[in-house]
Amino acid sequence: MNAARLTPTLARFAPTAARFAARFAAVLSLGLASAGASAQLLLEKDEVRELQGVELTEHLGATLPLDATFTDADGRSVRMGDYFNDGKPAILALVYYECPIVCNLVLDTLDTSLNNLDYEIGADYRLIVLSFDHGETTTHALNRRERTLRNYTVATGAEVRAGAVFLTGDETDILRVTGAVGWDFAPLPNGEWSHPVGLTVLSPEAKVSRYIYGFEYPADTLKLSLLEATEGKIAKSIGERIMHFCFRYDPTAGAYSVEAMALMRLGGAVTVVFLIVFITGMLIRERARNRRLARSQAGPPDSSIIETDAGVSPGRSDRYAANTAGQVP
C-alpha cells in the first residue's frame, strides 16, 4: 500500500486512539484506588478475637483429616471426606451453636453475605459449619441449619439442603480439624468458650486456601476466595475470570486487592487487541478506497470494441446467406 496515502488516514484516527488510551489509564487508576480503599476496611487478627488467650495460626495448604467422623444435622454418621469428592470448594465456619452472641452473629452475617453471592450453596460450593463444643448435639445442629436455610434466598431445594452441612462430633475428631486449620479455643469459667472469629475457605481437595477474619464477609471477598480456592474453575463469566486474574490476596491488609502487574498485563493485552482491530480496519478501509479510486480512473468500457463486434456479426450472416443460396437442394 502507498505509505503516503496511509499516513493521512492514521493521522485522522490518532485522536481516537489517544482518547482510548486516556480512558483506559483512568479506569486503571480508579481500580487501584478503590482496591486500596476496600483493603482499609478489614480488621487485624488481634482485633477480631473474642477474647485474648487463643491463637489462630494460619496453616495455608494444610489438608483437613478426611477420615474424621462426625454426625450431621439429620443424625447420620459422615466423614469429612464425604464433602470433598466432587470438585467443589467449601466455606468452613468453626462455632458452637449455643454461643450467646458471637457465633450467632458470625452465622447470621454469613447468611446475609451468602444471599449477596451469585454462587449457590450445593451447586457451586458447600457451607460446612462444625461445632467445636463436643457436648453439643444433633438437635443444636438441626436448629441452626433450619435457621440458615430459612434465611437463604438464592436457591431452594434438595441440592441446597445437601450443601448446607452442620456437624457435631467427639472431642478427638474436632481437635483434628481445628488443629489442621490452626484454630485454637479454650473453655471459660462460665461454661462458654474463647475462640477466634472468622471463616476458613477450603479447596476442592480439602486444603486450607484462605482465612477471612472478623465479623464482615463481603460477597466479593467470598467470591474471590472461592475463585482462588478452585483456581478460577467455578468462574461463570469472563468478568469473573478477569477478577481471578487481576485480584490477589494481600496478607498485610487482610483483603483482596488489584495486583498492579496483572492489571497492566491485562491492559497491555487489551491494548494490543484494540490496535490490531484498529489497524486492520484502517487497512481494509484504505484498500476499499483505492479500489474505488482505480475504478473511477479507468472510466467506462471502450465502445469501439462493442461496435467492431457488432460490425462483424452482419458480415458473417451475409456470407452464410450467400453460401446457402448457392447450394442445390
Short description:
This protein is α+β, with helices and mostly antiparallel strands.
CATH topology of the largest domain: Glutaredoxin
Compute the number of helices: 9
What's the Cα radius of gyration?
Answer: 36 Å
Helix content: 40-55%
Question: What structural category do the secondary elements indicate?
Answer: alpha+beta
Uncertain regions: pLDDT < 50 for 5+ in a row? 1-11, 20-52, 233-248, 258-263
Number of β-strand runs: 11
Can you give the mean pLDDT?
Answer: 75
CATH class of the largest domain: Alpha Beta
> Proportion of β residues?
5-15%
Structure notes:
The chain has 329 residues and is α+β, with helices and mostly antiparallel strands. The chain is 50% helix and 14% strand. It has a 7-stranded mixed sheet with strand order 2-1-5-4-3-8-9, sandwiched between helices. Strands 6-7 form a two-stranded antiparallel sheet. A two-stranded antiparallel sheet has the order 10-11. The protein is elongated, with a radius of gyration of 36 Å. It starts with a helix and ends with a helix.
